[in-house]
Amino acid sequence: MRLRSKLWIVTDEGEKLFGDGPYRLLLGVQKTGSLKKAADEQKMAYSKAYMLIKALEQRLGIKLLNFYKGGKGGGRAELTGDGLKLLEKYGEFRKRAQDYLDELFAAYFKEE
């Protein structure tokens, strides 16, 4: 038996703002240098991924990605300083929250 949980950040009005989906998408951009490749890894259409990033940027009031037009090798995308900070903060938050939940789960449901 184990615990499975999902975490996300919501606005004061309860609207989903940031969670594992956008986190994985940004991780993919960091890894591949491409929003298209990151979207493909998540089985998401590029247009949906692009609109998600733009909506997040608007709601958060920060720029997450810089886009560079392609030439011979194609375009690329990279995280901005703010995008990288968000990725690191959420990643650490996610890890610490999961560690705490695992500890709490063990305290209540430890098999004897």
Automatic annotation (TrEMBL):
Q: Which Gene3D superfamilies match?
A: Winged helix-like DNA-binding domain superfamily/Winged helix DNA-binding domain (1.10.10.10)
One Pfam family, short name = HTH_1
Which ranges carry the HTH lysR-type domain? 24-83
Q: Which InterPro entries match?
A: LysR_HTH_N, Molybdate_resp_trans_reg, WH-like_DNA-bd_sf, WH_DNA-bd_sf
Q: What is this protein called?
A: Molybdenum transporter
SUPFAM superfamilies recorded: Winged helix' DNA-binding domain
Check the record and name the PANTHER family matching this protein: DNA-BINDING TRANSCRIPTIONAL DUAL REGULATOR MODE, TRANSCRIPTIONAL REGULATOR MODE
Any one GO MF term held by the record is: DNA-binding transcription factor activity
